[in-house]
Write a structure and sequence with these properties.
heterodimer, A: 324 residues, two-stranded antiparallel ribbon, 22% strand, globular, B: 132 residues, mainly beta, OB fold (Dihydrolipoamide Acetyltransferase, E2P), five-stranded mixed barrel
């Protein structure tokens, strides 16, 4: 979204007249259950719905208008099954594909020429070297929206004013503010891995808008990149006692020719003995997990604590170069 | 301690097994090769983002080499039924993995046999849902 528009929205949020909201052809589309009818047809409808908005904020504003601004939850509401998101979850499926319906090199996103060229560079790198260096190797956070694809444990905490979406990996928390606040004013905002998220509740869905993000990649391998202009609208819903699903519309004018719609899903894991829990994730506790980047853009272990002289044993010059 | 048993297999089919790598690419491991070693657990480094199982393996000449086998972090191992207490030091183990390309004694841990029971760290990625 252009900065000036965000500014106007922020002004609106503090009491000045609200801008007109876009009206898509075909009208509002509420939650579509994957189990009802032809999911691919439903997915195409949701993709087309998102394409009618020229910005993530226009889509979010439209959804907000349809919900009359959304419902403010109370602590009493937390007892309702729709808002009880307790438990340990993990991604239901999809491997490292951002779109869980895609496999291998399949891609449902419509890329711009720049986005396609960036993805081709990744493909060429993989073909040339068989691997790549992942920025996660220094234990930087994956950043949103890649956050969604990480395959480890997740935990969700709903409160009336905030919802916390917790990723075990690198102790990573997304905070969704549902107390009616606006986004940080543009003049005071700065990009960060999980950005700035505000939301509202409607019909059992947590509707979220996220902006002020950093550039990244949806995942390793052949998944595309996103720019620091990426913004996301989500609708997260508990669809049964053990499943959370979410509509995602990702907007990125640099890499995406159209918003990228996907349906994400997380499954509550069996944990009868309560052994699974979110524990601290410390990337620096074991030197054997240190990673260096090689000249060909791939990664290597520099120094194992169980090898007396790595440089003497290894045939890789990168290892010799990394030795003190 | 059992004598080291090292079996190197080379097959393109093994490439489909992939290697354990969540925070780094797997290019340091050779997915076309599989090693199988028998030894005793020296240490289980049960850490994020990856765990390392160190196994002392006695070579044909009587010397001992410590091998490191990399697997996912604790929560994924727990989901595979592999707890820290599963592999205390001194445990006899036969373990398989994709070895490092550069010759160092390390591998991506594929599976293992302990007391006749097969354990597989990759089973931790299976999604076992809670009861409704």
């Amino acid at each position: 979204m252009p900065w000036f528009f965000k500014g106007l929205v922020s002004i609106a949020a503090i009491g000045l007249p609200v801008l007109a909201v876009s009206q898509p052809a075909g009208g509002y589309i509420g939650w579509l259950d994957k189990g009802d009818g032809d999911w691919q047809a439903s997915k195409a409808r949701l993709q087309a719905f998102g394409e009618q908005f020229d910005s993530s904020w226009a889509l979010y504003e439209y959804l907000s208008a349809q919900a009359d601004g959304g419902e403010r939850l109370s602590w009493q509401d937390m007892a309702e099954p729709a808002y009880d998101w307790s438990g340990i979850y993990t991604r239901t499926g999809g491997g490292l594909s951002f779109d869980p319906d895609s496999r291998g090199n399949q891609l449902s996103a419509q890329l711009t020429p720049a986005g396609a060229a960036a993805r081709q560079r990744k493909i060429d790198q993989l073909a040339a070297t068989g691997g790549e260096y992942d920025p996660l190797s220094d234990c930087s956070p994956p950043s949103f929206p890649r956050w969604t694809t990480e395959p480890f444990l997740k935990e969700y905490v709903v409160t009336p004013d905030q919802t916390w979406l917790i990723n075990e990996m690198v102790n990573d928390v997304r905070r969704i503010y549902t107390d009616g606040r606006a986004h940080t004013l543009p003049a005071d905002a700065y990009p960060s891995p999980n950005g700035d998220s505000i939301g509202f509740w409607h019909d059992g869905m947590l509707v979220v808008h996220t902006t002020y993000l950093i550039a990244g990649q949806y995942q390793r391998g052949t998944q595309p990149d996103y720019s620091d202009q990426v913004e996301v609208v989500e609708r997260i819903k508990k669809v049964d006692p053990i499943t959370l699903e979410a509509d995602y519309w990702v907007f990125d004018p640099v890499n995406l020719a159209e918003p990228w719609y996907t349906r994400q899903s997380w499954t509550k894991l069996a944990n009868d003995d309560h052994f699974l829990r979110i524990r601290y994730w410390n990337c620096s506790e074991n030197q054997n997990n240190d990673i260096i980047i090689r000249d060909d853009g791939t990664s290597q272990f520099p120094d194992f604590d169980f090898v007396e002289d790595d440089a003497a044993v290894s045939t890789d010059e990168a290892v010799s170069g990394a030795q003190p | 301690m059992k004598r080291a048993t090292a079996i190197f297999l080379t097959t393109g089919l093994l490439g489909c097994l992939g290697t354990a790598a969540a925070h780094h690419s797997a290019t340091m491991f050779d997915p076309t090769k599989m090693i199988e070693l028998t030894g005793v657990v020296k240490e289980f480094q049960y850490t994020n983002p990856h765990s390392w199982l160190l196994v002392d393996v006695t070579n044909e000449d009587g010397s001992v080499t410590t091998w490191g086998f990399e697997a996912e972090g604790p929560s994924t191992l727990m989901r595979a039924g592999i707890r820290l207490s599963t592999l205390p030091p001194g445990t006899e183990i036969t373990i398989r993995g994709n070895p490092m390309k550069d010759g160092r004694p390390a591998a991506a841990w594929i599976d293992a046999t302990v007391d006749g029971e097969r354990i597989n760290p990759r089973n931790g990625f299976a999604v076992v849902p809670a009861a409704n």
